[in-house]
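Whiteboard transcription, Tuesday session. T.W. wrote the C-alpha cells on the left side:
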C-alpha cells in the first residue's frame, strides 16, 4: 500500500502547477506593466513633440514668454491621452534661455509610471504587504528655432499677367502683388522674433518674362562679359564687314577680344569693341531744318538709350547650372542682350522685319548680310526706336532683380515691397531663366554676394516660382511686327534673314553659324522643327533640367501654376512640369505617407490662400530641424 502511494504520480502536475503559478503570474504582470509603461512613454513623447512644434509656431508669431509657457503646458496636457496629467511634469526652456541649444526650444517631460500588477507580485514573493513602486523616466523634444531663410520670389511678368484672373475681378499681376507682399510681411514678422541672429530672413525678387534684367548698375561687374570673350557675344555680328567698306577702319580679334584697328578710328584706335561699346556709340540723328525740296539742311544728334539691363542665357550647360563666372571659362560670363537691327527689306507679302530699327547702309540683297553688317552701328541714323525697350533693347521688358534684402529691417522690407509694386506685365515667358536667376540670387557664390555660404548649416535657400503660362519663343511670322513705313502690320514679320525666330535671350533660333542654342541639351527633339510648339517643348526640358540641378544643390523649389487648365494640352504639360520641378515637403505627407510636392495649382480667386499655405511651409522650414 505504501509502495503504491509512493509510485503514484497522478498528483505531480497539480503540485508543479502550484509551484510555478507565482513565477507565471509574475511574468504576465511584468508583460502587462511593460506594455502599459511603453505605451504611456510613447504617448508622453508624442504629446511632447506636438507641443514643441505648436509652441515654436506660437512663439514665432510674437507671443510673450509667459504666454508661451502657458500655451506649451496646455497643449502638452491636452495631448497626453491615457497618461494622468499629475504624473507628467513639463519643463520648457525658451530659446533665449537655452545656453546649450543656442536658438532652440527645449521641452522636457518627467513621467512617473505606477505599475499595476508588479507591486502585488513583489509582495506575494516576499510574503508581505504591497509597496508603492514607481518607475520614473524622462522624454525630450528640441525644436530648432535659429533656422534662417533666404527666399527668391521668381514671378512671371509676361504679357498674359495683365489678364483678369479666373474667379476674380482683378488682373493677375495685381492679385500676385498683394499675395506676395502679404507672404513677405508674414515671414518677416516671424524673423523679427529671432533677435539673436543676424539677417534671419532675407527676400529677393526676380521678375521674369522672355528675359531677366540684372540691373544696369552691373554693366561693369566682374561677372559680366565686359571684354566680349564669351563665344555668344559676337555670334550675330560680321566684323569683317568693317574692313570691307574702309580698310582704315577695321575690327580685328586678338587674344579673344575684338579691337578697333586702323587710322580711320582716330583717337579710338585700339579700343575694344563689345556690345556695351555699341550701345555707348549709337547716335540718333534728327533733321531740324529742311529746304523747299524737303532736303535736310541741319541735323541734331542724340545718344540712343544705353543697355537696359537684360542678359542672354549662357550657352549650354551653363544656362542650366550655377557655376560662378570665371575668366578661365569665358562662356560662364553673362552677355548683355543686344537685338540686332534687322533688314530694311520687306517680303513678297509686304511684311517688314520684326525689329528693323536702323538704316542698313548696304546695297546687299541678302537680308542675312544686311542684318550682320556692322558699319551701320557707327553711322548716325534716323530712327523711331527711341524708347528704352526698343531697338537693341527689344525683348528686355522686366524690371531689374532685387537681390536679397533683410526684411527684418524697415529699409529691407520696403525695398522688397517696392520691387513687387514696380512689376509690369509685358513680354514672352522663359521660366528657365527665371529659375536660374532665382538660384543665383540665393546662392553663396557670384554673381551676387548677399546670400550666406551654400555650406552654412541652419540656413535654407528657397526659390518660389510662379507662372501663368507655358514657356514661349516665337517664329518671326507668329508675332505682330513693328510699325514700318507708317503701316501697322498685324500678321507677323518676315524672316528674310533665316533666323527662324525673333531675337530673345536665346539669341536667334538659328544664328549666323547655323547653331540653335534653344535645342542644346535637349533630347527627343526634332532640331529642324522651328515652330513655336517645338520651341516650347525644348524650353520645358531646360526648365526640368535646371529644377533638378538646383534641388541637387539643396535649393528648395516651390512652384505655383496660376490659371493653368489641365483640360488644355499645352497647359497640362506645364502643370505637370511645374509639379515635377517642385521639391518634397519636409513636414507634410499624403495619405500614403509620401512627402507632398511643394506645388500649388492656383487661380486668380484663390491665389492669396495658396500664398498663405506657402507661408506655412516657410514657417515649418524655420522650426522643423
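and on the right, the sequence the group agreed on:
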Amino acid at each position: 500500500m505504501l509502495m503504491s502511494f509512493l509510485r503514484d504520480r497522478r498528483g505531480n502536475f497539480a503540485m508543479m502547477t502550484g509551484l510555478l503559478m507565482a513565477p507565471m503570474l509574475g511574468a504576465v504582470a511584468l508583460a502587462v506593466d511593460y506594455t502599459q509603461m511603453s505605451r504611456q512613454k510613447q504617448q508622453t513623447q508624442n504629446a511632447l513633440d506636438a507641443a514643441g512644434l505648436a509652441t515654436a509656431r506660437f512663439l514665432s508669431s510674437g507671443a510673450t514668454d509667459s504666454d508661451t509657457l502657458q500655451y506649451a503646458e496646455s497643449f502638452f496636457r491636452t495631448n497626453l491621452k491615457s497618461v494622468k496629467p499629475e504624473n507628467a511634469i513639463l519643463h520648457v526652456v525658451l530659446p533665449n534661455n537655452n545656453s546649450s541649444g543656442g536658438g532652440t526650444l527645449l521641452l522636457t517631460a518627467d513621467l512617473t509610471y505606477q505599475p499595476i500588477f508588479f507591486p502585488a507580485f513583489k509582495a506575494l514573493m516576499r510574503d508581505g504587504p504591497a509597496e508603492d513602486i514607481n518607475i520614473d523616466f524622462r522624454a525630450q523634444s528640441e525644436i530648432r528655432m535659429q533656422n534662417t531663410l533666404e527666399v527668391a520670389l521668381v514671378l512671371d511678368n509676361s504679357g498674359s499677367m495683365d489678364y483678369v484672373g479666373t474667379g476674380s475681378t482683378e488682373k493677375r499681376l495685381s492679385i500676385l502683388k498683394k499675395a506676395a507682399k502679404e507672404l513677405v510681411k508674414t515671414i518677416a514678422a516671424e524673423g523679427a522674433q529671432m533677435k539673436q541672429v543676424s539677417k534671419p530672413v532675407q527676400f529677393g525678387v526676380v521678375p521674369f518674362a522672355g528675359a531677366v534684367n540684372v540691373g544696369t548698375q552691373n554693366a561693369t561687374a566682374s561677372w559680366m562679359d565686359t571684354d566680349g570673350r564669351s563665344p555668344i557675344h559676337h555670334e550675330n555680328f560680321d566684323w569683317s564687314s568693317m574692313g570691307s567698306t574702309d580698310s582704315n577702319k577695321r575690327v580685328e580679334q586678338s587674344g579673344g577680344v575684338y579691337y578697333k584697328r586702323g587710322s580711320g578710328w582716330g583717337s579710338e584706335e585700339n579700343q575694344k569693341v563689345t556690345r556695351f561699346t555699341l550701345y555707348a556709340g549709337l547716335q540718333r540723328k534728327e533733321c531740324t531744318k529742311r529746304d523747299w525740296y524737303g532736303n535736310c539742311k541741319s541735323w541734331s544728334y542724340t545718344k540712343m538709350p544705353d543697355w537696359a539691363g537684360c542678359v542672354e542665357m549662357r550657352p549650354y550647360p551653363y544656362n542650366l547650372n550655377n557655376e560662378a563666372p570665371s575668366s578661365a571659362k569665358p562662356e560662364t560670363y553673362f552677355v548683355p542682350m543686344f537685338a540686332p537691327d534687322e533688314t530694311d527689306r520687306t517680303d513678297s507679302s509686304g511684311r517688314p522685319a520684326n525689329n528693323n530699327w536702323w538704316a542698313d547702309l548696304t546695297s546687299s540683297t541678302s537680308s542675312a548680310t544686311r542684318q550682320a553688317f556692322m558699319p551701320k552701328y557707327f553711322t548716325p541714323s534716323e530712327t523711331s526706336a527711341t524708347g528704352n525697350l526698343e531697338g537693341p533693347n527689344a525683348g528686355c521688358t522686366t524690371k531689374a532683380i532685387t537681390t536679397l534684402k533683410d526684411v527684418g529691417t524697415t529699409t529691407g522690407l520696403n525695398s522688397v515691397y517696392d520691387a513687387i509694386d514696380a512689376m509690369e506685365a509685358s513680354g514672352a515667358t522663359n521660366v528657365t531663366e527665371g529659375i536660374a536667376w532665382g538660384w543665383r540670387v540665393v546662392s553663396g557664390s557670384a554673381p551676387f554676394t548677399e546670400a550666406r555660404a551654400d555650406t552654412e548649416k541652419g540656413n535654407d535657400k528657397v526659390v518660389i516660382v510662379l507662372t501663368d503660362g507655358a514657356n514661349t519663343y516665337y517664329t518671326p511670322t507668329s508675332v505682330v511686327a513693328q510699325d514700318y513705313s507708317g503701316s501697322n502690320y498685324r500678321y507677323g514679320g518676315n524672316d528674310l534673314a533665316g533666323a527662324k525666330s525673333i531675337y530673345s535671350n536665346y539669341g536667334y533660333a538659328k544664328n549666323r553659324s547655323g547653331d540653335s542654342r534653344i535645342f542644346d541639351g535637349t533630347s527627343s527633339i526634332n532640331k529642324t522643327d522651328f515652330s513655336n510648339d517645338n520651341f516650347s517643348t525644348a524650353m520645358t526640358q531646360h526648365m526640368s533640367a535646371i529644377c533638378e540641378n538646383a534641388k541637387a544643390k539643396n535649393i528648395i523649389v516651390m512652384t505655383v501654376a496660376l490659371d493653368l487648365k489641365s483640360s488644355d494640352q499645352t497647359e497640362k504639360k506645364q502643370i505637370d512640369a511645374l509639379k515635377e520641378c517642385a521639391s518634397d515637403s519636409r513636414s507634410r505627407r499624403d495619405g500614403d505617407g509620401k512627402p507632398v510636392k511643394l506645388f500649388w495649382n492656383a487661380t486668380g480667386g484663390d491665389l492669396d490662400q495658396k500664398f498663405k499655405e506657402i507661408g506655412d511651409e516657410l514657417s515649418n522650414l524655420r522650426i522643423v530641424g
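Someone added at the bottom: Residues 92 and 107 are 5 Å apart (CA to CA).
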